[in-house]
Amino acid sequence: MLEVQSAEITLRTVRDHVRWAASRFTEAGLVFGHGTENALDEAAALVSHSLHLPAQIPDLYWDARITDGEQRLILERVSRRIETRLPLPYITGEAWFAGLPFHVDRRVLIPRSPIAELIETGFSPWLDAVAVDRVLEIGTGSGCIAAACALAFPEAAVLATDVSTDALALAEHNLARHGLTGQVQLLQSDVFDAVPADARFDLIVSNPPYVDAEDMAALPPEYRHEPRRALAAGDDGLVVVHRILAGAAAHLSENGILVCEVGNSEWALAEAYPQVPFLWLDFERGGHGVFLLTAEQLGTI
After folding, report:
1. Radius of gyration over alpha carbons of the chain, in Å?
2. 37-to-10, 22, 44, 72 alpha-carbon distances in Å
3. Interstrand relation of 290-294 and 279-280 (parallel, antiparallel or unpaired)
4. Nearest Cα to 251, choosing from 113, 134, 143, 160?
5. Are residues 149 and 156 in contact, defined by beta-carbon separation less than 8 angstroms?
6. Three-class SS of the chain
7. Which domains does the chain have, with CATH numbers?
8. In sequence order, what are the beta bridge partners of 161?
9. CA 148 to chain centre
10. What is the pTM of this model?
11. Cα 244 to Cα 138, 140, 241, 259, distances in angstroms
12. Each residue's pLDDT tens digit in the chain (301 positions)?
């Protein structure tokens, strides 16, 4: 177990614990990317969650003293993060997406898609929010994209699919948490297999498995704790995306759009479909490899 006896003697304030945890994370060579990008932000996230404080710790609290019980929890979590290399959201049981908290565990991928930015703007200028009646999410996992879309389009019916019954059980919990079980329907489906043939949607959105074989082989330990089936997608990372592209046109309304994340497989996709005018989207908060296609453009595939 991580040596913490000296820490118990010298650490007193919120600031002390964040600084100490950040140093230990850096010393241990941890890898980030599940909601934070560096050791200091990870340490702050761990301490704030442990103390039931806001994600952004207010200045008022930085020099507040921590109780013995709070310290034990923080040190235990720091030790677990280092020794197991579990991503922090699996330790705290919570991740944030589009400004919303979601319960997460090892049944699902930890939410981190840049698609959150698009949802926050209602997919403007490509969609008129008040005209969106039906939304389909493929591969819902924790339900975070479906839930955020439901709140962005409060008059729309949302269908969220996943091949994993374990993931759907967790998504159901998260939808109930946000009062969305009446607006979002969950369906076990492998891509479009169980989606009604005559169903049409104004938006199809997906963050499917897209990690290619080379990147899978190089994944750091933190990412290997996530469900392999939610990451791995064959040699080129496009096994699932090919199926989405093949079926999307038949399920989009006349003015509908497909938004899909493919990450580092962006170049492989562009090479596989040189005739398709993928619109690759930019993000203010970082992220890449998300494309948009209209129903008309998909009809050319």
Report:
1. 21
2. 27, 12, 12, 25
3. antiparallel
4. 134
5. yes
6. CCCCHHHHHHCCEHHHHHHHHHHHHHHHCCCCCCCCCCHHHHHHHHHHHHCCCCCCCCHHHCCCECCHHHHHHHHHHHHHHHHHCCCHHHHHCEEEECCEEEECCCCCCCCCCCHHHHHHCCCCCCCCHHHCCEEEEECCCCCHHHHHHHHHCCCCEEEEEECCHHHHHHHHHHHHHCCCCCCEEEEECCCCCCCCCCCCEEEEEECCCCECHHHHHCCCHHHHCCCHHHCECCCCCCHHHHHHHHHHHHHEEEEEEEEEECHHHHHHHHHHCCCCCCEECCCCCCCCCEEEEEHHHHCCC
7. 5-92 (no CATH), 98-298 (3.40.50.150)
8. 138, 187
9. 11
10. 0.94
11. 9, 14, 5, 10
12. 455 555 556 899 999 999 999 999 999 999 999 999 999 999 999 999 999 999 889 999 999 999 999 999 999 999 999 999 999 999 999 999 999 999 999 999 999 999 999 999 999 999 999 999 999 999 999 999 999 999 999 999 999 999 999 999 999 999 999 999 999 999 999 999 999 999 999 999 999 999 999 999 999 999 999 999 999 999 999 999 999 999 999 999 999 999 999 999 999 999 999 999 999 999 999 899 999 999 999 988 8
Separation of alpha carbons 49 and 77, rounded Å: 11
Q: Are 183 and 157 in contact (CB under 8 A)?
A: yes
